[in-house]
Amino acid sequence: MARTENGKVALITGGGQGIGQAIAERLYADGFKVAVADLNIENARKVADALGGKQRGALAIQVDVADRDSVFAAVNHAASELGGFDVMINNAGIAPASPIEEITQESIDQLFSINFNGVVWGTQAAAAAFRALGHGGKIISAASQAGHIGNPGIALYSASKFAVRGFSQTAARDLAKDGITVNTYAPGIVRTPLVEDLVKKAASAAGKPEAWAWEQFANGIALDRLSEPSEVAAVVSFLAGADSNYITGQSILVDGGIVFN
Q1: What is the pLDDT of residue 194?
Q2: Which of 57, 60, 120, 134 is the most buried (most CB within 10 A)?
Q3: What is the pLDDT of residues 39-61, one digit of tens each?
C-alpha cells in the first residue's frame, strides 16, 4: 500500500538505530513526516536518507538528550523544517549493568541525565511547541518492563524507568488541559544492537556459544522469544495515532509476557 501523508510531524530521539529506527520507519509508513534525532548524526542521516530525505519528509537532526538546550533546539528545528509538530517520542536511552556495590555518583548522573532528564526536556520542549502552534499533541516516552518490576543487575536502569513512568503520569494530569496526552511504552528484551552486544558478552563470560546466551535472555518470556523492534514500533504507532486519543497516563507493556498487571 502506498504511503499517504497524514499532515503530522513526529520527532524520535535515539532514532538512528534499534527501536528508535523502527519507530521512525513505522511512523513514516503511517504517513508522518519524521525528524530522526540522534547523538550520532551519521546514523540519523542513514535512516532519514533511506526514507527519502528531507524532500520526502524525513529529516536528520543531531541531539544530545542530556542537554536541555539541545532538545529544545531539535524540536524547534523539526517544527520549522517539516512544517509543524504533533508527536514527541522520547526514545533515547542507555542500559549499562549496575551492580549495587558498583554504583557511583558519576554512574547515577550519567544514566539519569539521559534516561530521565532527556524525557523531562523532551516533554517540556514538546509541550512548548504544541502551545506555540495552538494545538494539543502526543508525548510518548520509553519506559521498560524493568520500570514495572525491578530487574537484577540493572538497578539504575530500572530506577530511571520507574522515574519515567512516575513523571509521565504526573505530566499526563498537568498537560491534559492543553489537549496533550502523555504515555509510555514498556519493551521487554528486544533484538537490537545493544542487546546483541550484551548477548555476546554474556556468552563470552560464561564460555558458552551465542545460541546459549540467546536462550538465557529468552528465559521467562511467556512467548519464548525476544521481541523484534518492529513489534515495539507497532505499539508506538497506536499511541501516536488517533485510536489512542482517549488514553493518557498509561504504560503499555510490550514484553512478550514478562510482567502481568
Answers
A1: 76
A2: 60
A3: 999 999 999 999 999 999 999 99
pLDDT at 1: 64
* Dihedral over Cα of 11, 17, 19, 21: its sign: positive
All residues at 6 or more sequence positions from 177 whose CB lies less than 8 Å from its CB, including other chains: none
pTM, two decimals, is 0.95
- Binding residues for NAD(+) are 17-19, 38, 64-65, 91, 157, 161, 187-192
Domains detected in the chain? 9-189+228-254 (3.40.50.720), 191-226 (no CATH)
Identify the band that residue 97 occupies on the pLDDT scale cut at 50, 70 and 90: confident
Candidates 28, 157, 185, 246; catalytic one: 157
The pLDDT tens digits of the residues spanning 152-168 come to 889 999 999 999 999 99
157 is catalytic: yes
